[in-house]
Amino acid sequence: MFSFVVDKFETHASAVLHISDLAVQRGYGIFDFFKIKGRHIFFLADHLDRFFHSAKIMKLAVPYSREQIKGFIFELIEKNALTESGIKMILTGGYSTDGYNPARSNLLMTQHPLTLPSADQIDNGVRIITHPYVKEFPEAKTINYSMGIWLLDNLKAAGAADVLYYEGEIVSEFPRCNVFIVTHDNVILTPARKVLHGVTRKNILKLTGAQYTIKEADITRDEVYQAREVFLTSTTKRILPVVRVDDRIISEGQPGPVTLGLLNELLRLEERDAV
Amino acid sequence: MFSFVVDKFETHASAVLHISDLAVQRGYGIFDFFKIKGRHIFFLADHLDRFFHSAKIMKLAVPYSREQIKGFIFELIEKNALTESGIKMILTGGYSTDGYNPARSNLLMTQHPLTLPSADQIDNGVRIITHPYVKEFPEAKTINYSMGIWLLDNLKAAGAADVLYYEGEIVSEFPRCNVFIVTHDNVILTPARKVLHGVTRKNILKLTGAQYTIKEADITRDEVYQAREVFLTSTTKRILPVVRVDDRIISEGQPGPVTLGLLNELLRLEERDAV
Questions:
Q1: Rounded CA gap, B171 and B166, in Å?
Q2: Residues of A within an 8 Å Cβ radius of B
Q3: Which residue in B2, B112, B141, B231 could disulfide with B259, CB within 3.0 to 4.6 Å?
Q4: If you measure CA to CA, which chain A residue comes closest to B152?
């Protein structure tokens, strides 16, 4: 397997960074992640847009043009020749001379076989917990997951698949996923503010235009507890039904029809994108 | 110059980490920093205590005993033979197999010549700005400095040396320093909650027991503006007078007597520690 590390391709085993890099010294960097099937990259334009947007928010200059980055991605895909995979692209604060001030950014790209949600997770839904927190730079996909990783023990103890952040009772997002609820009036809601603009979230907002009523809105934790359906979205997980939030059963403990309907529509959208 | 990287000493130029390390992937790690003069390490016990405390808060197992770590530190000092220096010791989430779950922690140690505050900064004081923020894990010295680094442009624009965080009008700390104020009743105050327990902060709390009245307390931003004196503390900076906070002049724009008195006492404490 090959990776791309600071201007060149390396075997993954040799993919190293000098420890002066600002990701190591100060956790400073952004990233993006996208899916690949054969040679097709799903929603590449959206992911590249967001990658440059995250870099801009965090004041990191990208040391390559968009076309150069696309070139590296395609070269990596050719070299590794995987069937179904994900590529993670990290941009760090670079080799800082004083361990604090950013330097020329370092670009890293790694490709891995993809782990999609299990049939069990889709058929039976997952349980989630909630935790008071909001990301520091929600609209930038930064590498700072201190809270998400710190909470892994809590997930395990609760038998939960993920943790939904809230601040002042307004929910925002999961560490790596967006949240949606379906109200008892069959309106689909997703938090409007202080969230990462997920590519799957964006696709669902497009889908729902036709058949469903969809709104970006502030959602309280209590509205999540009372929702008819709850689901989470991400590039890897697509749409995953949530059947329990903390100690409240949602949707009678079964994936709901709106959630499953949207998942089918999303799968069709992916097929169309891959043509 | 030598560094210590994952179980062994390397020349600093060869000090690399595989990119699967959780610091690179997710900004997950803790660190500590201490001063060395010749072979003397200042307040080593305090720094080791805090290093292990930070690791514990962040649920990172330290893969060596305290005695082993001291051994590495002394070996590094022998190898590099610097006159006046600082050692930074980082503990990361390790080489994660899935880019999210921690593995065996990696220990990194680097030694650098020390940059102490300039005579100008001590004689004339520095200006600071304020910014609404509180660290996610204030009592752990994590590597996450996203906000501090993001604010570097603001410091530059304001001609400020540092930025004081506050949340709901209660001030906490600087990205890398603690804050103290002296009230018009000559009481010395430092924030009690949501701050890193700095070693210099701890030393000052000890000093002031004798001569001054000192309290750990909640301090509002307005109390900082109105203070008779303001100063910041850290291992590198020791005590640095603050003469302007945002657009408010403090202490008639000159370092105050309590600040300078404490700096002299701190220097004597360092001398005693070095014996």
A1: 4
A2: 3, 5, 15-29, 58-59, 88, 90, 92-93, 99-102, 108, 110, 133, 136-137, 142-150, 152-153
A3: B231
A4: A101
Answer whether B205's CB lies under 8 Å from B178's CB.
no
Distance (Å) from the alpha carbon of A33 to chain B's nearest alpha carbon:
12
Could you report the predicted ipTM of this complex, rounded to two decimals? 0.96
Q: Which residues of A186-208 are buried (b: 16+ CB within 10 A; e: fewer)?
A: ebbbbbeebbbebbbbbbbbebb
B143 vs A18, A25, A92: nearest CB: A25
What is the pairing mode between strands B126-132 and B238-245?
Answer: parallel
CB contacts, 8 Å: B108 with chain A: 19, 24
Q: How many CB pairs under 8 A join A and B?
A: 127
Strands B84-92 and B29-37: antiparallel
Distance of CA A7 to the CA centre of its chain: 25
Residues 6+ positions from A255 with CB-CB distance below 8 Å: A122, A123, A124, A125, A229, A241, A243
| A146–B153 CB contact, under 8 Å | no
Quote the tokens at residue A159. Answer: 């038998």
Q: Report CB contact under 8 Å: B3, A25.
A: no
Helix ranges (H only) for chain A are 22-26, 44-57, 66-80, 119-124, 146-150, 152-158, 199-211, 221-226, 257-274
Q: Do A146 and B26 touch (CB under 8 A)?
A: yes
Tokens of A166: 């809230």
Sketch out chain A's domains with CATH numbers: 2-113 (3.30.470.10), 119-274 (3.20.10.10)
Tell me the pLDDT of chain B (275 aa) as tens digits: 999 999 999 999 999 999 999 999 999 999 999 999 989 999 999 999 999 999 999 999 999 999 999 999 999 999 999 999 999 999 999 999 999 999 999 999 999 999 888 889 999 999 999 999 999 999 999 999 999 999 999 999 999 999 999 999 999 999 999 999 999 999 999 999 999 999 999 999 988 666 788 999 999 999 999 999 999 999 999 999 999 999 999 999 999 999 999 999 999 999 998 87
User: Which of A19, A28, A99 is nearest residue B5 as measured by Cβ atoms?
Assistant: A19
Q: Do A146 and B99 touch (CB under 8 A)?
A: no
Separation of alpha carbons A212 and A217, rounded Å: 15
Q: Do B149 and A26 touch (CB under 8 A)?
A: yes
Question: Is A27 close to B22, i.e. CB distance below 8 A?
Answer: no
Q: Name residue A92's beta-bridge partners.
A: A29
Helix count (H) and strand count (E) of chain A?
Answer: 9, 16
Do the chains contact at A23 and B28, CB–CB below 8 Å?
A: no
**Partners of residue A147 in chain B, C-beta under 8 Å:** 136
Whether the model clears a pTM of 0.80, i.e. scores above it, the answer is: yes
Q: Which long-range contacts (CB under 8 A, 24 or more apart) does B93-96 make?
A: B93/A149, B93/B21, B93/B22, B93/B23, B93/B26, B93/B28, B93/B29, B93/B60, B94/B21, B94/B22, B95/B18, B95/B20, B95/B21, B95/B22, B96/B20, B96/B21, B96/B22, B96/B25, B96/B26
